[in-house]
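Q: How would the structure tokens look for this protein?
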Amino acid sequence: MEIMSAKDLSRYLEINEKKIYKLVQESSIPSTRIGGKIAFFKELIDIWILENTALEQHIFIAGSDDVLLRSIINTYNSSSDKGIVFYAPVGSIKGLKLLKENGATMSCVHILDTEKKECNLSYMDRHLDGDNYVVIHLFMREQGIYLLKGNPMGIHSLEDISAKNASFINRNRGSGTRLLFDYLLHEHRIDPSNIKGYGREADSHLEVGSGILQGSADAGLGIRHVAHILGLDFISLFHESFDMVIPKEHFHSIQVKRLLTFFEQSALLHHIRDFTGYDTGKMGKVIYPRP
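A: Here is the predicted structure in token form.
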């Protein structure tokens, strides 16, 4: 779980640092003390944002971590004067839970159906009442193994991570990538206890990739684009669908319609061509209810 200082949180929320301390003093924001200093857990802050800002004025997206989606949101926020999009990458499962509890406007997900061995809409039946939601396809992503440039340990498969006792950085429980990793281990008959570092968790693809780059681990699982921007080697394992789930009551709102229209702009399509490891050919297509 990522820890932030008051200065980090001030930049993250874009408010004065004195305001941060005032919120702490009033017990209005989740905080803790580490080594005598005030600190904040980013995941709890993201949830606090969702719970404390008016849904009717802004859009709140909770769910899976993705760098392309974050870039699109940042571009939208910089060009819009009619509401802000807040993004809490708390994991696919927690995102759906927040959606069901009316804690978010929409949720971004990538959840593998382990029985059918593909990403599909089965999560609608498991976690939501499907009749009340619309699902928009955003893009396809490529998931695989992160390794240091040149692959010094000679890792070429999941089996090699275990066999060569390579240290690993895992994703947080409840994230789609963690569910995918557990599924792949099961398919390859690899006991998680044989993965050195299986219990070490990171909250984002970038955090995993940075750990590999800094030498704190030999391997990790994540999306191709992060490997590309960090200059890591990458072994492709899986292509997955990354979707947005929207309650019908929000889907027809002006704020959500404005955001969905933004996804179709030609300038945005030009912007996303720079993102390696994505297929955006069907971005914005309604996949549920089926046409």
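The longest strand covers residues 133-147.

The CA atoms of residues 10 and 18 lie 9 Å apart.

Upvote if useful.
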